[in-house]
Specification:
The protein is of the alpha+beta class. It has 20 helices and 28 strands. Helix 4 runs parallel beside helix 5 and helix 10 runs antiparallel to helix 11. The radius of gyration is 26 Å and the shape is globular. About 2% of the residues have low confidence.
């Protein structure tokens, strides 16, 4: 009897211990607070930095470009595992590396991608006071480590991302990066400012559904990573919200601050006497942008568009430049209809109907019955916007073919939303105050890396490290969280849009399909008077910047007079009543050697070099790729309210073929400018000969004899695509100049 009592007591104690342990898993007791990592590499020798600059000046001189200034390349959009999505994607069972801390970004920028500058922009929604302080301190360490001899090998900036997502077009403002000029306390926000809405609600209220704590038991060898994530989320939830009525400059440092709109974000920053650069990005990304969203509601004085002087036109998540006349849906939000397909666009809602009709015919229903079910399916799909794919049960990625995609855009964002393209924004005017209010942006590119790797696009390799590709490492894991639905019913289901929006999260989006659209990302290039923080900032403020699709083309674009003198450089403004004249000069990016240069091999420990750079670094030869043509885009902003922007965007307006090995130069005029008598915007694209790009062919369509996509072979992020498959295809890499804004003033 006594033995049974002892055994029972032990069993109860054991069960209590197990219960306490399991509770600890769910509450984050076993997790550790992740730190920012440790910067290990010493500064790049000044002689190496000087050699790079001299090589660029020699290329500029050969092309007839200016040699009194230099072009610096950087990445203003970088995430570490202090961002929630980055932490999730780094988890081992999602084929991640476990951790990608801020310190990695500093060493990667110097030794792997050889950048001149970069900015830390983790999502504000997950930056607790402790993480914010650690981030600032690490970026300062990077600056100090990079400049022991007075010549910085890299110049880091501090910032954060305001990550706003609305469920409907009228309340969606999109994402903005906020970059601060110096690393002094007086010039940096006391706390990051998060966006109200979906992202905050998911993180603070529904984070458990993003990654259930019990996942640790499915990957026991790596369980600490999952415990750490639970701790990561709990630290966000435990941070008190700031008082919404108190001005930002009067708030305590230890609370979680939220801004509802871009205008509110600017006001809160100004309350702290701050004047950062704010960069909208990802505007056409259909992964989260509600179909039908446009720029109009942000082009009002209260939203402070004049403060946002730069826009990210391209990143590793896709191109947001090009306008198209087609739309994902038609009509007001309470009476939407599905548009019919065109030669260059297949609406996703229309494809939903096709899928249902094909299933219906397969099970032997009549053509009339199947046509009616297809009509209903299209309406069910269009009614719920981003969640349209959920109305088709048992659907697979391949079922959608290339529906929702911009077929003729350069490396487009997935499920492209043309109403929020950069070109669409620049054609708009707001006449509420009499004088037209317009966007006046400089163009930059970025990586939007979530693996703390600034400037990842220098070579087409490392799809699972140099892009944001990731997914379940086994079929069993995928089925654990997304239960397989073998049923493929021959009719769609109607979903409640309001209920979906109330519980909005990534389950509404086509995350699985997105993996095929991640690329190596772009770069920001700045024309500077010197290699300094002040010179870079000055160039960004005056918009003398340009974007690239990841490589390092040299580009100059100027408005000139008859003598060839510069009236306005790219990003500039000028008035004219006569024929405006322009000159563009471009040089291709350097051809790369395989492997890493000696400065990288000797500068980092071999294990760290391999972990960060994955065997490949920016390693240029003296040869350069050829620029094949220059394309000119002309946009004439609205001069009448409701003027049709389809008639105002001319892409391509003029084209100049190039064949010079040392670069390309072209001059052009707009003889119709004075006759039309309206303000006009001009920018150029320098197109380079085809070279490889990860996911350069995104869905990898198979076409029939009419050019219709009849099958796809996506590059999945998960176990279905081998880690060794880089999914590389040739693309015409390019550089986009910032526009020159020419105002019409009669002579």
């Amino acid at each position: 009897m006594r033995i049974w009592i002892i055994a029972g007591t032990v069993l109860v104690a054991l069960l209590a211990a197990i219960g306490l342990y399991v509770a600890g898993v769910f509450l984050g007791w076993h997790g550790h607070s992740r730190g920012p990592g440790t910067i290990t590499g010493d500064a790049i020798p000044a002689a190496v930095v000087s050699e790079r600059a001299q090589a660029q000046l020699a290329a500029a001189d050969a092309a007839g470009g200016p040699t009194e200034t230099q072009i610096l390349f950087g990445d203003l959009h970088v995430h570490s595992t202090f961002s929630t999505d980055a932490f999730v994607w780094a988890l081992p069972m999602l084929r991640g590396e476990g951790a990608n801390p801020i310190a990695d970004a500093c060493d990667f920028a110097r030794y792997c991608s050889a950048l001149d500058f970069w900015a830390m922009t983790d999502h504000a929604e997950a930056l607790t006071p402790a993480r914010w302080a650690q981030s600032v301190d690490t970026v300062r360490q990077c600056a100090a480590r990079s400049q022991p001899g007075g010549v910085p090998d890299v110049i880091p900036f501090m910032g954060f991302e305001w990550t706003q997502v609305g469920g409907l077009p009228e309340d969606h403002y999109g994402h903005k990066n906020v970059i601060f000029e110096t690393l002094d306390d007086a010039d940096i926000a006391a706390r990051p400012i998060a966006a109200a809405g979906t992202t905050v609600r998911v993180l603070r209220e529904n984070a458990g559904s993003m990654l259930p704590p019990e996942i640790a038991f499915l990957d026991l060898p790596n369980r600490q990573s999952y415990y750490d994530f639970t701790r990561f989320v709990s630290e966000v939830r435990d941070t008190p919200l700031c008082d919404a009525e108190t001005p930002s400059g009067e708030l305590p440092d230890g609370c979680y601050e939220i801004a509802d709109t871009p205008g509110d974000l600017v006001a809160r920053l100004e309350s702290q006497d701050l004047d950062p650069i704010i960069i909208p990005h990802g505007s056409t990304w259909g992964l989260y942008t509600p179909p039908g969203t446009t720029w109009d509601k942000q082009l009002v004085p209260d939203m402070r568009p004049e403060v946002m002087t730069l826009v990210e036109i391209y990143s590793g998540h896709g191109n947001s430049e090009e306008y198209r006349s087609w739309r994902p849906n038609l009509g007001p939000i309470d009476d939407l209809t599905c548009p019919e397909p065109t030669e260059d666009y297949l609406p996703s809602c229309w494809r939903a109907g096709d899928i249902i009709r094909e299933r219906c015919l397969t099970v032997g229903e009549s053509a009339a019955t199947c046509a009616e079910r297809a009509r209903i399916a299209r309406q069910n799909s269009v009614d719920v916007g981003l969640a349209g794919h959920l109305t088709v049960e048992g659907e697979m990625v391949a079922d959608w073919l290339d529906a929702g995609q911009c077929r003729d855009c350069f490396l487009p964002a997935m499920n492209y939303n043309p109403g929020t393209s950069v070109q669409a924004a620049m054609a708009l005017s707001n006449f509420d105050s009499g004088t037209p209010l317009r966007y006046r942006w400089g163009f930059v590119g970025s990586s939007d890396t979530h693996t703390a790797r600034p400037g990842i696009g220098y070579k087409p390799f490392g799809r699972h490290y140099m892009t944001d590709t990731g997914g379940a490492d086994t079929q069993a894991l995928a089925e654990r969280f997304v239960a397989p639905d073998d049923a493929a019913p021959a009719q769609s289901i109607a979903l409640d849009r309001d209920a979906l929006l109330a519980n909005a999260g990534f389950q509404m989006t086509e995350v699985e399909r997105q993996a095929s659209f991640f690329t190596g990302g772009g770069l920001a290039a700045v024309h500077t008077s010197g290699r300094s923080r002040e010179a870079i900032w000055d160039a960004m403020e005056r918009r003398e910047v340009y974007a690239t699709s990841g490589l390092r083309q040299l580009l100059w674009f100027d408005m000139i007079n008859e003598a060839g003198d510069v009236i306005a450089p790219m990003g500039g403004e000028a008035d004219s009543g006569d024929v405006p004249r322009f000159r563009v000069r471009a040089v291709g990016s350097p051809v790369q050697n395989p492997g890493c240069p000696d400065v990288s091999i000797h500068g980092l420990d071999p294990d760290r070099l391999e972990q960060l750079c994955r065997g490949e670094c920016y390693n240029p030869t003296d040869a350069r790729y050829r620029i094949t043509r220059i394309e000119v885009v002309r946009i004439r902003p609205q001069i009448l309210e409701d003027e049709d922007i389809n008639l105002l965007i001319e892409d391509v307006w003029q084209t100049f073929d190039c064949d010079g090995a040392d670069g390309c130069t072209a001059t052009f005029e707009d003889p119709g400018f004075a006759d039309e008598g309206r303000d006009t915007i001009y920018y150029v694209r320098a197109i380079q000969e085809p070279t490889g790009q990860v996911n350069g062919d995104n869905l990898r369509c198979e076409y029939d004899e009419t050019g219709t996509c009849v099958a796809v072979n996506p590059c999945f992020g998960d176990y279905r695509t081998e880690m060794s498959d880089e999914c590389v295809a040739d693309v015409e890499h390019r550089a986009w100049s910032s526009p020159i804004y020419v105002g019409y003033r009669p002579l």
